[in-house]
């Protein structure tokens, strides 16, 4: 092939890759990000939470958020706590990443064989979504998906709405969107 042909092929490859990225035709599914503001997923729910942002007590701008509230529901469902005699109390679910949440997170990370650092990031959130079980709906884009989080001690309902945003049921029975930039859970 001559030089012009090689340049043409290289240019076509660059244009094709740019077009695919623009149209969302990449090989991997779209992923969530804290900049998006939501705990979000698409297509299959397996691994949806494995690309989430970090919430923690110390260095997170999201420590007071509904994403933290979702994490606290996971801690409650897992029966995680500061020690085996004191599991995470449902009354502590308030969307604020405080000492009880930090201690329970550390212990749950140890139980799950993760790095125990009390930071809930992609690996910890990703391990948690292993406990999501589909109960209805569809995994297709634009469809509602119904799930349960099945922990060691409790189960709670979760759903992914038509926009891919995750919602969880609060203790008072209210559905809350798992967002990073606000706190409405109780």
Write structural notes for this entry.
The structure is a single chain. The chain is an alpha+beta fold and 186 residues long. It is 29% helix and 16% strand. The longest helix has 21 residues. It starts with a helix and ends in a 9-residue tail after the last strand. The N terminus is likely disordered. The strands form two sheets. Strands 3-4-5-6-7 form a five-stranded antiparallel sheet, covered by helices on one side.
Q: What are the main properties of this structure?
A:
disordered N terminus; single chain; alpha+beta; five-stranded antiparallel beta sheet; 186 residues; globular
Q: What strand line-up does the widest sheet have?
A: 3-4-5-6-7
Q: Report the count of strand segments.
A: 7
Tell the overall outline: globular
How many alpha or pi helices? 4
Largest sheet: 5 strands, antiparallel
Order of helices and strands: HHEEHHEEEEE
- Tell me the span between the first and last alpha carbons: 67 Å
Low-confidence stretches: 2-32
Oligomeric state, counting identical vs distinct chains = single chain
Evaluate the radius of gyration.
20 Å
As a percent range, the share of strand residues is 15-25%
Name the average pLDDT: 83
Helix content: 25-40%
């Amino acid at each position: 092939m001559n030089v012009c042909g090689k340049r043409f092929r290289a240019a076509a490859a660059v244009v094709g890759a740019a077009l695919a990225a623009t149209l969302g035709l990449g090989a991997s599914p779209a992923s969530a990000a804290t900049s998006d503001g939501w705990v979000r997923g698409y297509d299959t729910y397996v691994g949806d939470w494995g690309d989430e942002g970090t919430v923690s007590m110390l260095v997170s701008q999201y420590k007071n958020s509904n994403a933290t509230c979702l994490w606290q529901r996971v801690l409650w469902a897992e029966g995680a706590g500061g020690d085996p005699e004191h599991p995470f109390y449902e009354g502590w679910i308030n969307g604020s990443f405080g000492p009880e949440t930090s201690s329970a997170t550390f212990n749950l990370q140890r139980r799950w064989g993760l790095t125990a650092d009390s930071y809930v990031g992609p690996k910890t959130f990703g391990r948690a979504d292993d406990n999501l079980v589909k109960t209805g709906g569809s995994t297709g884009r634009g469809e509602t998906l119904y799930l349960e989080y099945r922990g060691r001690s409790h189960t709670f309902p979760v759903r992914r709405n038509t926009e891919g945003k995750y919602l969880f049921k609060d203790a008072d029975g209210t559905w809350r969107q798992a967002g990073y930039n606000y706190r409405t859970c109780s």
